[in-house]
Amino acid sequence: MKSGPGLHLKTFSLILIMVLFGPLGDVLLSKGMKDLGKIPNWSLPELAHMFVVVFSSPMIWLGISCLLGFFIAYTLVLSWADYSFVQPSSSFAYGIVALLGHFLLGEKISPLRWAGILVICCGVLIVGHTQPRTTEHR
Asked: What does the alpha-carbon distance between residue 138 and residue 130 come to, in Å, rounded to a whole number?
């Protein structure tokens, strides 16, 4: 498979979906579970009740749907791009996670953590300037 503009557009589009849908799904699951509260008792009837409550939550289902979208995009992009390109490129998600955690969940992000996220994103930019596929298609 030759590396052309169409391949790059497809690859970067799916990585964008991964970078947005993965963190969004995680944050929605976190918000949904925090809204439900702690499990007060680990007895079998209480766990069964929590199972029903969890899977009747729209927030949980929205989070699962986003993660399913992430998984589909991840699977598709791995079918033509190198794992050594896709995995580092998808690390922009760490920045999205921090932003969503701060703005949607009200989490405090320390300056040191922001600095670490900035280092990760700079590494992603370096990886992004390489070819998505270095191996021959079998």
From this structure: 21
Distance of CA 93 to the CA centre of its chain: 6
Distance (Å, whole) CA 92 – CA 89: 7
* Whether the predicted model's global pTM rises above the 0.85 cut: no
Name the pLDDT band for 123 (thresholds 50, 70, 90): confident
7 band by pLDDT with thresholds 50, 70 and 90: low
End-to-end CA distance of the chain: 9
Helix (H, G, I), strand (E, B) or coil at 117: helix
Q: How far is CA 2 from CA 22, 132, 133, in A?
A: 29, 10, 8
For the chain, strand residue ranges (E) read none
Using one digit for the tens of pLDDT, what is the confidence trace for 102-117?
998 898 999 999 999 8
Instruction: Find out whether 54 and 33 touch, Cβ atoms under 8 Å.
Output: yes
CA dist list (Å): 15 to 25, 69, 73, 111: 15, 11, 7, 27
